[in-house]
Amino acid sequence: MAKTEVIVMAGIAFSVGLLLGLVVHLPGVSSPLKRGDGGKAGHPSIEADIRRLVSARFPGTGTDNVTGRLTGNQRPGIDLFHRTRFGPAGVSAGGNYTDTRRNATHWNETSGSDDTVFSRIIVDGVFWSNEIEAMAPDRFSDADVARWRRKTEAARVVTLDAGCGMMQNRHLVFDDATHACARYRINADQIQGDVFSFYLSRLLGVGHVPPAVLATTKRRRHLWSGVDSQLVAAQWSSGRAFVLTPWVPGLEPAFIPPDLRRDNRTLHPTPAAMENKTHGELVELLQWSDLIVFDYLTANVDRVVNNMFNKQWNDHMMDSPTHNLERSAPSGLLVFLDNESGLFHSYRLLDKYAHYHDSLLGSLCVFRRQTALRVQTLYRDGDVGTKLVELFENHEPLHSEIPTIPAENMQMLHRRLGDVHRQILKCQRTFHS
Asked: Which regions span the lipid bilayer (predicted)?
């Protein structure tokens, strides 16, 4: 081969390589993900998949996970994988709220007119401002979810003992000292409720539900071989799927905000309701607005509704800790635990508990903008159940181990989305000037 031809061919090869390199790094063009990068091989990350499934734009937030911080205010991150003792309670005796997390300055003590102060809290009539969202603690992110899946698929279990709730649930420790909770249930719909509620929280952008993955002791058997005797004592079936969630450290009891404890409860976007709140109280209410929407959609009966129902026997139930809700002492994040009743068993109980759900939703007239837009989009598209199943099947390798969502449950979820959407519209008509 002539020297000139070699030079020409080398130049062509270089050009092709350069072109391929540019294509790979162009925005929106990427190679398939490897297993463990947040999705299946050839599938996008869960967050990218959600953007595809929920096509609405979310103005005013910039990203799906609000991670802004106050200047000079360093918030400890949430360590998903190390167990600590519970932190000191952030409430006084009797369940009265005390702001121990951040600057307790009231908004009406800051400079500016009343209108200026209120506009820093509520925008467009019914939405929390970017400033309030930026003060909120980091939620469970797509990276947290991907990291947890990698952890559960690779780490050996070295300890399995009682804990993480009643019956056959177990607290476990991996070989790198990571702690976790295994939620084992005989009834399939409790496993369905837990894992599908988690995927619904991702679809809604409500990042308060800890990562949840399905597991069985027969899959990757070598990872469980060190606790064979404990598995026998727990009376687990090797073929039954259960849910693995991270142990979240530093949790303390969470209490219902005073605005929502009384019978004539309201969380409305008015100066009278907002301007006397501390920064910490406003951040807490921001998170509660997402909780009310999420629990209404899943019809969860094991959280706030539990307190409301038991008030008939105990007048102080609304001042007691909220069932299945904890607060991270380091960051102030509300953590929505034990969602196993959601979407399945809870839907069968609506005849008995619907008026409690209606009361909570009817009290709410201030929303996280992203949550409201996702509700609007999912309801408009009319296929939230299909999207939820698709998200679950794309990102859960063991999806075939549990039944899918029945059509009637999908229809109920769509109807309840409509209820939330209409409540948002009603609030906009009432408060948007």
From this structure: 6-26
